[in-house]
Amino acid sequence: MARGNQTRREQTYREQTLKKFPWICAHCGREFDGKQLSQLTVHHKDHNHDNNPPDGSNWELLCLYCHDNEHQRYQVAETPGEAPADREHGHPSTFTPFARLVDLLKRSP
Fold it and tell me: Which three-class secondary structure state does DSSP give residue 101?
């Protein structure tokens, strides 16, 4: 009975991923050992949990924090509508952080 459960568990994409990839978060590079392994999650790159190719090409290991961040970014990107307006003035921001970069690069040291 125990061997049957282990075999089933090893067939899950999490177990397959942990065997295929080093126990390192693909985003922040944090390393994990056996004690911390529960903090390492399998992320589906295409966000489709039904897409589980046996070669692991749709999976990456992410820590809990990077996994949450990845899903937050995905949700924001999927939100329909315009870019958020400037809260104070009710219009989009016109700030361009690199506008004067050319001038700064022309300066001699």
Answer: helix
Q: Which helix (H) or strand (E) holds 7?
A: helix 2-11
Collapsed DSSP state (helix, strand, coil) of residue 36: helix
pTM of the model: 0.60
Q: How far is CA 101 from the centre of its chain?
A: 31
Q: Average model confidence (pLDDT) for the chain? A: 78
Q: Which residue's entry shows tokens 């790159």?
A: 45
* Distant-in-sequence, close-in-space partners of 18: CB < 8 Å, separation ≥ 6: 37, 40, 61
The two three-digit tokens of residue 102, written as one number? 């050319």
Query: What pLDDT band is residue 5 in, cutting at 50, 70 and 90?
Result: low
Give the CA distances from residue 105 to residues 76, 97, 100, in Å, rounded to whole numbers and listed in that order.
34, 14, 9
User: DSSP secondary structure string, 27-90?
Assistant: TT--B--GGGGGGEEEEETTS-TT---TT-TTEEEEEHHHHHHHHHHHHHHH--SPPPPPTTTS
Alpha helix positions (H), 21-95: 64-78
